[in-house]
Amino acid sequence: xxxxxxxxxxxxxALLSACGGGGGGNSGPxxxxxxxxxxxxxxxxxxxxxxxxxxxxxxxxxxxxxxVVPGAAVAVTAPGFIRRQQFFVGGxxxxxxxxxxPYVRAIVYGGGEFGLIRWSSGFRVKPWPGTEDKIAVVVAxxxxxxxxxxxxxxxxxxxxxxxxxxxxPALADLNALAVTFRTYSGFxxxxxxIVFRSLGEFLGNSxxxxxxxxxxxxxxxxxxxxGHSISYHDVMSNENxxxxxxxxxxxxxxxLRMMYAYRAPGNAAPxxxxxxxxxxxxxxxxxxxxD
Length: 291
Fold this sequence. Notes:
The chain is α/β, with parallel strands linked by helices. Helices cover 23% and strands 16% of the residues. The chain has helices at 2-19, 101-107, 132-146, 199-203, 215-224, 250-262; strands at residues 49-51, 62-64, 73-77, 84-87, 94-96, 124-126, 151-152, 160-164, 178-185, 188-196, 288-290.
């Protein structure tokens, strides 16, 4: 017992020295500086390529470069599609435009010299009194083909107005049934105004121009960002024997689908994304289109 009691203080001293710091201080030694871990290098992968019409994979697509990192420019070609140039977004498919280049240059890019223009959101359309039934059909069709929530209102403000004004200077050309004005913010359409020369021409019972019944739908195509089509099978043709229907043709519908589902404002002809280096700057189309 006596030997055990004599050893206890020594044990206590050893424990205290193990828990405390030296030199009479109460803090331990400085921790080692943290070493920054470098971010992993981006991994180059083969882009996934799909059809903008069907959504299915395009097996014959060729990407350049074949392996690309996110944020890098890539070009993709495939038979039956327009060559696509864009910045690669990792994990997102590249959708190719399945139409003939001359057609797209005309109806989307105003002949190829302008950038793609479109609305960034839905809008309201205010009809001229007495044309509500006609405009309701046009609004429903425009919403269907663009995928935008487009509605008609008879009161309050609206982003798109339909008016009758035979004195408008833009209608000085006697062959013009109507004119569509557009306002832009960059390449985004923010407002529009459709001016008709007479109510008879608006309703489609004029004797001029073959008594067209779909001039309002034609003008709504301009509101959505379309130009004139090179195919007389289309509503957007400015030929006298154009499609007289009250729905857009398959070519027009596909063009609008590509514009609103897969392409950004400012896309350049034939199919180049904004920001991809180009030799010349793009321009927005004129602020009005005469028909």
